[in-house]
Design brief:
With 75 residues, the protein is an alpha+beta fold. It contains three helices and three strands; from the N terminus they run βααββα.
């Protein structure tokens, strides 16, 4: 059995450049934005598995760069 590091929402705001509101937004729409794989619900609390959270962040960055490459300025 692997040991994974889990983070609370408050810990994420301290370790990453996101506000509490931004993290809550990500979590509220976790089923739409594919973040649900990283989320563990314990009672009413949501905690995130750090390795999957970081993987999700990298995926968002790659998708954003792809979309920026597809953008074409028109005259």
């Amino acid at each position: 059995m692997e040991n994974h590091e889990y983070l609370t929402v408050k810990q994420i705001t301290q370790l990453y450049p996101f506000s509490l509101g931004q993290i809550r937004h990500f979590l509220q729409f976790r089923h739409r934005n594919s973040l649900q794989k990283a989320v563990l619900k314990v009672g009413k609390r949501l905690i995130l598995r750090r390795d999957l959270w970081e993987y999700w962040l990298n995926e968002q960055k790659e998708n954003r760069e792809f979309r920026a490459d597809q953008f074409v300025m028109r005259k």
